[in-house]
């Protein structure tokens, strides 16, 4: 199974979501929106280019970001991750629940973290 991403987001894991919100809104006038689904909340903004910036408050992962997260727009995240594993690609986080759907993380050959995100409305497998 091949996967050709059509869109992506840059995801940041931060120590203080309110501080991050103030910084990016005050410094860059991004107009980040508070989103529900994570505790306490998460932030999302879109650049004019169409690229989404997403911020989660999370302990332990700071400094490993930002990460590029590819959107799985047609479903099949389980199949894609299985295919990556079959090719010997390091899976860091298997398919797991994420706000609004499912996500998984893996490493490229140089150790850079990449991710996948799929809406919960789409089928996890297309087989």
From TrEMBL:
<dbReference type="InterPro" id="IPR029068">
    <property type="entry name" value="Glyas_Bleomycin-R_OHBP_Dase"/>
</dbReference>
<dbReference type="InterPro" id="IPR004360">
    <property type="entry name" value="Glyas_Fos-R_dOase_dom"/>
</dbReference>
<feature type="domain" description="VOC">
    <location>
        <begin position="6"/>
        <end position="119"/>
    </location>
</feature>
<dbReference type="Pfam" id="PF00903">
    <property type="entry name" value="Glyoxalase"/>
</dbReference>
<dbReference type="InterPro" id="IPR037523">
    <property type="entry name" value="VOC_core"/>
</dbReference>
<protein>
    <submittedName>
        <fullName>Glyoxalase</fullName>
    </submittedName>
</protein>
């Amino acid at each position: 199974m091949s996967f050709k991403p059509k869109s992506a987001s840059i995801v940041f894991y931060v120590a203080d979501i309110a501080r991050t919100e103030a910084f990016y809104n005050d410094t860059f006038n991004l107009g980040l929106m508070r989103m529900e689904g994570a505790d306490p909340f998460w932030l999302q903004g879109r650049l004019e280019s169409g690229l989404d910036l997403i911020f989660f408050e999370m302990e332990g992962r700071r400094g490993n970001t930002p990460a590029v997260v590819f959107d799985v727009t047609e479903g099949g995240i389980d199949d894609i991750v299985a295919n990556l594993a079959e090719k010997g690609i390091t899976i860091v986080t298997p398919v797991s629940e994420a706000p609004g759907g499912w996500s998984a993380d893996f490493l490229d050959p140089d150790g850079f973290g990449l991710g996948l995100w799929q809406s919960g409305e789409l089928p996890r497998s297309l087989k």
